[in-house]
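Long-time lurker, finally posting.

We've been working with Mitochondrial carnitine/acylcarnitine carrier protein-like (Scleropages formosus) and I want a structural starting point before designing mutants. I don't trust myself to interpret raw outputs, so I'm hoping someone here can both generate the structure tokens and explain anything notable. Sequence follows.
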Amino acid sequence: LSGKPPVSPLKNFIAGGVGGACLLFAGHPLDTIKVRLQTQPRGTCNQYVLYSGAYDCFRKTVSKEGVLGLYKGMAAPLAGVAPMMAISFFGYGLGKQLQQPDPNTPLSYSQIYLAGMLAGVFTTVIVAPGERIKCLLQVQSTAGQLKYTGPMDCAVRLYKEQGIRSVYKGTVLTLIRDVPSNGLYFLTYEYVKNLLTPEGQSMNQLSTPRILLAGGTAGIFNWVIALPPDVLKSNFQTAAEGRYSGLWDVLRQLVQEEGMRGLYKGFNAVMLRAFPANAACFLGFEVALKLLNWLAPDW
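Top reply, 14 upvotes:
Generated this for you. Predicted structure of Mitochondrial carnitine/acylcarnitine carrier protein-like:
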């Protein structure tokens, strides 16, 4: 058996970008539904709520805005998701490379988790402003008034009104959401891939359905721990200035008004999206990586 090729953070970067584009096309419609459910005005028992659930939100969005309504605000994440996943897989590749001087020595699961956490730190730089802009654009059509014409207009106006801090509002929550969940994301993917690899075979020979299963499962586990901070982040980033004094205040108000269930708002939309979107992401990544290894084995 020839030795395994060393981990190439550069190849991971390019293949991650391909994976990110696949993730977005598969998952953005349910992301729009998730954000609209998370940020809709809170109704009391006898008050009318805008959407009763994921399917109701889907139905109303399509009937009011057409199918393209589900792809609202996609320009910002497309400009952000492909580079974000590229940076995520780059950070993961770098984390593995730093802990693995010899490519033939397998990494332990705790090392894989640490490499995944590094990916989460790397991505926050792009994710935090991108998500703030995305959430504001997705919510404005629900509110009925169009304050921003698009992602660039939104970014420029946030910067003009309150400087760079406003653009990066919600960064700490993004870190709380992404660092542990990214570790679990990559750990689950590697673990399930390992589990599905027949005795005596290499993980590189895994069939497409098995890669899809591993990627989809990783997406589900990622969101199980990422959703509560994500709900807090969506509320914090779309709230009027001065509505919350800080992170604890968002948590306190949300739990007070809706109980612990409020932290898992949009759960169905997230879980419906997590499997296909992340299955598509990892498949795109693996196919692109194989192609790169074939085209440029020495990179």
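Before you design anything, note these points.
The chain has a mean pLDDT of 87.
The CA atoms of residues 96 and 209 lie 25 Å apart.
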